[in-house]
Every structure is written in C-alpha cells, then in structure tokens.
Design goal:
- The chain has about 190 residues and is mainly alpha-helical.
- Among the domains are: about 80 residues, GIY-YIG endonuclease (3-Layer(aba) Sandwich), CATH 3.40.1440; about 55 residues.
- It is about 45% helix and about 10% strand.
- The chain has a 3-stranded antiparallel β-sheet.
- A hairpin with a 5-residue loop joins strand 1 and strand 2.
- The longest helix is centred in the N-terminal third of the chain and has 13 residues.
- The radius of gyration is 20 Å and the shape is globular.
- It starts with 7 loop residues before the first strand and ends with a helix.
Length: about 190
C-alpha cells in the first residue's frame, strides 16, 4: 500500500548563518527533492537561497516539517507562517510575501512581456530546430505525472465503461482535471 504524502508547511534552514526559507506542499518530500534539484542545477527561484547553496553546499542546510495541515488549509496556513516568521531580507530566503502566488496583484509590463517573448522565440528557443519524437514526449510526460501507466489505463477503462470522471476523482482524492489528463495521456500513448 502506498504511503500518503505529507501535506504541510516546511522550513529549509541554513545551519551556518541561521537564515531560512518557508514553503508549503501537498507532498513535502517530493517538494524537497524539487528544491534540491533546482539548487543543484543553479536554477532555484529564490536567488538568495541559490547563492547561499552555491556558497555553503547542501550539507549546510536542514529540511524540517514545521506543521502538517489539511490540503484545503495549505495556502492559508503558509500565509500565517510567512506573516508570523517574516522570512525575508536579513533573516530569510523567501522573496514573495504572498503564499502560493508570487505574481498576485502584479502584472508584467508590456515591455517585459515583449522581451520575454523575444528571448524565448525562434532560434532562441531551447528546442529550436530539434525534432521532438513521440518517445521524448512520453518520457517528459511520464516524469511529470502522478500516476503509473497501469493506474492511468484503469482510469481510462473505467471512463470508457461509463463511469464519470468526477466519481473517479473523488474516489482517488484528486481533482477531476487530474483524472482527465491521466485518461488523455493513456489514450495518446496507447497504454
């Protein structure tokens, strides 16, 4: 039987200088792996945390769960923790003061939108001129999905037999869109 993921608020602490980062996730262990991967590859969204990692290395950091919560309360609890601990500036690595949505209430200027568009279009796009095989797409899809091929196939069979997507999603404990995507992947890659 598969263990349920831990849902809650976590803290990443730099044990050298005491600075810390607060985050939340519906699967904390997976989120930690993501943080470590981003840091290792020099691509973390928190430039402050990335610089500290580059300077001190992974052994200088500790990861801890500070509060387990219900998924429906996740962002609200993270916001409370951000407001209470204030992990910004000299004491923390967080950049955004709003839980879950760093661009909330903000918009890119037309100039920035144009620059981003130019930077990532045509020959500047990382996959420009590279053929994308069905197998490559399948590998990317598989790396980003939540369910096994067998589970997705079973969702598709249940759906094809007349069961509603909402019923399947409720039983699994996920959003109907997640089930729809799983069924579509199963159809697209014929498994």
């Amino acid at each position: 039987m598969k263990k349920q993921p831990i849902i809650g608020i976590y803290k990443i602490t730099n044990n050298v200088n005491g600075k810390f980062y607060i985050g939340s996730s519906n699967n904390i262990k997976r989120r930690w792996r993501h943080h470590k991967s981003m840091l290792k590859n020099g691509k973390h969204t928190s430039i402050h945390l990335q610089r500290a990692y580059d300077k001190y290395g992974l052994p200088a950091f500790s990861f801890e769960i500070i509060k387990e919560v219900e998924e429906k309360d996740l962002l609200n609890e993270e916001q409370k923790m951000l407001d209470f601990l204030n992990p910004f500036g000299k004491i923390g690595y967080n950049i955004c003061e709003t839980a879950g949505n760093p661009m909330l209430g903000k918009n890119h200027t037309e100039e920035v939108k144009q620059l981003l568009s130019e930077r990532l279009s045509g020959e500047n796009h990382p996959h420009f001129g590279k053929p994308v095989s069905k197998e490559w797409r399948r590998k990317i899809s598989k790396a980003n999905k939540r369910f096994t091929d067998e589970q997705e196939r079973s969702f598709r069979i249940r759906y094809d037999n007349g069961e509603r997507i909402g019923e399947i999603a409720k039983e699994i404990g996920t959003h109907p869109t997640t089930i729809t995507r799983a069924i579509n992947r199963s159809k697209r890659f014929d498994y």
